[in-house]
Write a structure and sequence with these properties.
This protein is an alpha+beta fold. It is 28% helix and 29% strand. The chain folds into three domains: 85 residues, Rossmann fold (3-Layer(aba) Sandwich); 61 residues, ATP-grasp fold, A domain (Dna Ligase, domain 1); 166 residues, D-amino Acid Aminotransferase, Chain A, domain 1 (2-Layer Sandwich). The chain contains eleven helices and 17 strands.
Length: 356
């Protein structure tokens, strides 16, 4: 394949956080180099990447120099400014492509895209002012969740509305940001599918993992998830539909609610995903290598799971437990190299092999 990168080629990664770090490690195992573009100083990926450019996404000269030094560009987070992508796309391929970013950067656009594919989502409405919020609540009902359309993550940028009397206060808390109202989904548990699609259109999915959140932040992912054989098949098939509709190249995380009436898509993330970290110790080819293979034009790897795993995020003061965790049998520690421990900050994760 003409687009297949050879060992020694360089992958450019927009973002230098822990996902960029783990992508760089995976690329190095395949003989590929990584160049990180990151506005912040001393990012986690800097410790393992071949090169780092420290510059803002509004620095046109730095963006052009970065692009000219790499063979393909990928990213570890969704909210990359459009103007930066306009510059980069004329110089090097961006994988996954921009359509995936356009869809996922805006919660309303994402919900409309999923609905148009015929997939089930929470009831939703575009919120432009207090009147539209009251009208939407009258239709969707409460409880409901008011979210910013852009830039929300780990529970940020959203507020739960239990009663219509809370509407104006909830809207005010978003400080004028464009918003979407989502109805409450009565789910039993949440699962996610880590799916990949190659340049040749081949699709491969890892086993769905079962997620537990606390305070809006993922705490654990366990495989296998509690799913029937039919639900597992449905989850994998709908992830494939999303990838194909976007002509996607790379790894994507697809979060799903399990309900008595079937699977409901919560959101998609066009990148490697926190809930896929278990693959590092549960599969021969993990999600990070799978992403590198896809964007480099290599054949996708076999993502078959060879062990039951529970992934636990290490958040803030969880680092105080590190010595005890290190003494646990069949437990792999993955730290992100972050210097400062802060409440709510993901410092690393552990993968525990679960014996039946």
């Amino acid at each position: 394949m003409a687009d297949r990168l050879s060992p020694g080629a360089t992958i450019g990664i927009l973002g230098g956080g822990q996902l960029g770090r783990m992508l760089s490690v995976a690329a190095s195992r395949l003989g590929l180099r990584c160049h990180i573009f990151e506005p912040g100083a001393a990012p986690p990926a800097e410790q393992v990447a071949e090169a780092v450019t420290t510059a803002g996404y509004d620095d046109e000269a730095a963006l052009k120099s970065f692009a000219q030094s790499v063979d393909v560009i990928t990213y570890e987070f969704e909210n990359i400014p459009t103007a930066a992508l306009d510059i980069l796309q004329d110089l090097r391929p961006i994988r996954p492509g921009r359509e995936a970013l356009r869809v996922s950067q805006d919660r309303l656009t994402e919900k409309e895209f999923l609905r148009d594919l015929g997939l089930a989502t929470a009831a939703f409405a575009d919120i432009t002012d207090a009147a539209s919020l009251r009208a939407a609540l009258a239709v969707i009902g409460t409880p409901a969740i008011l979210k910013t359309r852009r830039f929300g993550y780990d529970g940020k940028g959203q507020v739960r509305i239990e009663d219509i009397s809370q509407a104006e206060q909830a809207l005010a808390s978003l400080n004028g940001a464009p918003a979407i109202l989502e109805g409450f989904v009565p789910f039993t548990h949440e699962v996610s599918v880590i799916a990949a699609r190659g340049l040749d259109g081949a699709v491969a999915c890892f086993d769905p993992g079962e997620n537990v959140h606390r305070d809006g932040i993922l705490r654990t992912t366990t495989v296998p998830a509690q799913l029937t054989a039919g639900q597992r098949t449905d989850a994998i098939l709908l992830a494939g539909r999303i990838l194909n509709a976007l002509d996607y190249v790379g790894v994507m995380g697809v979060e799903l609610f399990v309900t008595p009436k079937g699977l409901v898509v919560n959101e998609i993330a066009p990148r490697v995903h926190n809930s896929g970290h278990w693959t590092q110790n549960g599969c021969a080819i993990d999600q990070f290598e799978q992403h590198i293979r896809a964007i480099a034009g290599w054949p996708l790897g076999d993502g078959t799971r060879h062990a039951d795993v529970q992934m636990e995020n290490l958040i803030g003061d969880d680092m105080d437990r590190l010595a005890d965790i290190a003494s646990e049998p069949e437990t792999a520690i993955h730290l992100y190299g972050k210097a400062d421990v802060k409440p709510g900050r993901k410092m690393g994760h552990v993968n525990r092999i679960v014996k039946g």
